[in-house]
Design goal:
single chain; mainly beta; 4-stranded antiparallel β-sheet; 3 helices; about 5% helix
Length: about 425
């Protein structure tokens, strides 16, 4: 694959620093960095596949606290970047977490909702960055809550799982766009929100929304600080606390951020029993009618299976990434090993496009598994964007106008990169 930059090489910056250049009347300056080119860094916590099968990938550089979200336009082999380098609405680099996109979900209108460590964004993907709204100022709890998950309910409400950040409590926030309301639930000494929210839960890492057969829905919430799941019934508007116990069928946790498939089945890990004193768990799903199904189990340890990322889809189908970033695919009957998407990576999210290609993201970039060949193509700073904040040996091709530079992306990584001006 030919790596191509959309926007790269800080040529203008170098000229300004070295020659003290002043802006020519009628001209403008553009600042290019790794965090607003290509995949925006090797820290990629979220992915969303659009209707055109192009991925939107959240990415950031923790050393500079720059980044945002980028769309990979596969037909043109280029990246469209929405970064706080170019769009201050995302947040200033001094505010740690403002660029760290942890989850992406689409609503019924096709707008994207993005959960970040310091708030939430909404954007029309057809318009792009010009439509981006940052809701950090709408809710103090959201701005400081460390949002890790977002889901859109059938009634259009948008739900956020907050794990807490910088000493602030987490919990759950429900946003009602029609009324601009932000309702916050949390426990602990600051217990608030009502609706029977449990006082023992104040850190939430995951949530998923399951439709009910007769209308309405259930919000399933995975508590980080308490050994329990919590559920909200939209009909009664009450929360139920499901405390874990070593009883067969007891709910342990949710395996990932997207635990409800297209048929409305909700996936969770449940306690099975003991084997030689060791607790055993299974990965099961609950139908919309409330029946639990025990499908074939993945080839993982039955005690504390290392599930780092999970996505349910279709009718009882799923993708799973284990602790080695090996991806497993469940077709409803059996699990298939799809291989390791990146050696030395840590998985955060998984997605599937309409052609059956699998996408994985995490600490170490992103990768796409071709459904036909089974080969993984990895994308990261070193093959999609400007390598580093320091570039040397700049040269311009007098014929094509392309700019070339040598760069070092880290120990043993680097080379030459080119910018074609697009």
């Amino acid at each position: 694959m030919r790596a191509r930059l959309v926007a790269a090489l800080p040529l203008l910056l170098l000229c300004s620093l070295e020659a003290g250049a002043q802006a020519i009347p009628g001209s403008s300056w553009r600042y290019y960095r790794p965090s607003n080119t290509g995949i925006q860094g090797d820290f990629n916590g979220a992915i969303h596949i659009g209707p055109d099968d192009d991925p939107w990938i959240g990415g950031y550089d923790p050393s500079a606290e720059e980044g945002g979200v980028a769309r990979f336009v596969q037909a043109e082999n280029r990246w469209i970047n929405i970064s706080n380098v170019d769009y201050p609405v995302i947040g200033h680099p001094d505010m740690t977490g403002t660029t760290r996109v942890s989850d992406i979900a689409a609503d019924a209108q096709g707008d994207l909702w993005l959960a970040t460590w310091r708030g939430a964004w909404k954007m029309d993907p057809d318009i792009g960055a010009d439509s981006l709204i940052n809701f950090a100022s709408a809710s103090p709890e959201l701005a400081n809550g460390g949002a890790r998950n977002v889901a859109v309910a059938p009634d259009g409400t948008v739900w956020f799982a907050l794990i807490g950040f910088g000493g602030d409590l987490g919990g759950v926030i429900r946003h009602t766009p029609a009324t601009s309301d932000w309702h916050y639930w949390t426990g602990g000494l600051a217990s608030q929100g009502g609706n029977n929210w449990p006082q023992l839960v104040w850190m939430v890492r995951r949530l998923s929304i399951q439709p009910k057969p007769g209308g309405g829905y259930i919000v399933w919430v995975d508590s980080e600080n308490s050994s329990a799941l919590v559920s909200f019934d939209s009909t009664t508007e009450l929360w139920t606390y499901h405390e874990f116990s070593f009883t067969p069928g007891a709910l342990l946790d949710m395996p990932g951020k997207d635990c409800v498939d297209a048929s409305g089945n909700f996936w969770a890990r449940r306690f099975v029993g003991f084997a030689g004193g060791t607790p055993i768990y299974s990965l099961d799903y609950r139908t919309p009618a409330g029946d639990w199904i025990v499908p074939a189990q993945p080839a993982l340890p039955t005690f504390d299976p290392p599930i780092w990322a999970f996505r349910a889809y279709g009718d009882g189908e799923a993708l799973l990434a284990d602790g080695e970033s090996r991806v497993w695919h469940f077709d409803g009957a059996a699990w298939e090993d799809f291989g390791i998407w990146g050696a030395g990576t840590a998985s955060d999210d998984l997605a599937l496009d309409s052609a059956g290609n699998v996408w994985a993201t995490g600490t170490g970039g992103a990768a796409k598994r071709d459904a036909v060949t089974g080969i993984w193509q990895r994308y990261r700073v070193t093959n999609t964007s400007q390598y580093d904040f320091f570039n040397e040996d700049l040269a311009v091709d007098p014929v094509s106008g392309a700019i070339y530079a040598c760069a070092n992306a880290g120990p043993g990584a680097g080379g030459m990169t080119s910018f074609d001006g697009l």
